[in-house]
Amino acid sequence: MVFLRQVSVLAAASVLLFGCGDYPRDARDSLKDAADLGKLKAGYTLHSPWVSEGNAGSSPTGHEARLINEFAGALDLNVEWISGSESQLLEWLEKGEIDLAIGGFPKDLAWKSHAALTFPYFSSTSREVPRVIAVPAGENQLLTTLERYLLEVTEATNR
Amino acid sequence: MNKREPKQIPDDKLPLFERANKLERWSITWMSTIVLTTGLALSSSHAMKAAWLEDILGLVPPMVYLIASRIAPKPSDEEHPYGHGRSMSLAFLAASAAILVLGLYLAFESLSSLVSVDRPSLGLYSLAGHTWPIWSGWIMIAALVYSMVPPIILGRLKLEVATKIHSKTLYADAVMNKDDWLTAGAAVVGIILVGFGLWWADAAASLVISCNILRDGYLNIMRAARDLMDQRPTDLQEGEALGLEKRVERELESHPAVQRARVRLREEGSLFSGEAFLRLEGDSVASKELFTNLSNAAKSIDWRICEIIVAFDDSAD
Questions:
Q1: Are B222 and B255 contained in the same domain?
Q2: Which H or E run contains B277?
Q3: Of B137, B185, B188, which has the smallest distance from its Cβ to A24's Cβ?
């Protein structure tokens, strides 16, 4: 019983102390590092209409590219776009070299055990597969921050 | 063929057996709600999965108890001349083996996720295609804290009854329940630490849980196996011999017709049975009446002794 009380006190204290701001944190400080550098490193692979090629030499366009630009803007960050194949993006995510990856990934992505996927932020009424965005596994602050943003945006468009 | 007399549980103990059944039915009800709530909060956390599996496993002993408590009191029949008392130990052995195997599997899984640096990802809480702006860790912790309460209360109630009716199965179940806070508590600590960026805490917590499950499985297998091996009657808590044999021997030897008595006893579920080997005084005549009296005297020592077969023994010391 004493233990039960200790746990509930610990849990309550955690809610009060870390409920809103700096909790949960990243295992590898991705979001903090991005804030220090002032830029978010975003990997992408082309997959129209989610991610389309921009004008020569410039950043990608498309629905997801626009989402990420807006997300970074909300955090006062710039986006450094890095293009790669799906397997390259996976490798970079595992090594923590990029902060997130887009490419119109379906929610049942084959490598979902190697990275963290957001909730399916896009699910239209058509038979289109719901889409997700990938971040490195264990980066729970980055994941929840991105998910909160996606939740706001999707709620806004649904209204 | 001779069949054993149906076992008599003393009338004053019957309400306790009823209560044990009621507590086990309550356990199934409450543990089911826990399995459901914990299941709804499930995510990629290993500790959470381990705690969930342990909750599901917690359903097994009450089910086994309830099933066996229907079979055990059945009277002896042509096929089962000794009655059905052993069904409880047998069912319990099978359940314990399953628990042990699951503990091994969980221990292996948490170790391998530690070695392969498998960082748990906990995002916002999603259920059935809907997402809420709350960290899934909080939902998991809430479910785990809920899962601590019923087992602790039920465990204590069962412990009390188990000692009174001498049921090892019920006792083992009660101890498992009482230790359940360790599982949920370890998972809560693991998730809180993951929130601080300590990814390994999750797998470490699930390792602690799997050790707890392994311990449960091992202890229960040993208990059931000792029963099936006809171990002498022992105390529930400490597993120490009750020393009933000596008391029965002294009771029998106090009869004027008996020169020496040697007794052996074994456990069959809640009840004990055994044999008494007697050397009679030189001038005593063995009669049916004498043997019945001696057998009844032996049974009067403890309510749990349900059958004593009296036999001649004229061997030297």
A1: no
A2: strand B271-280
A3: B137
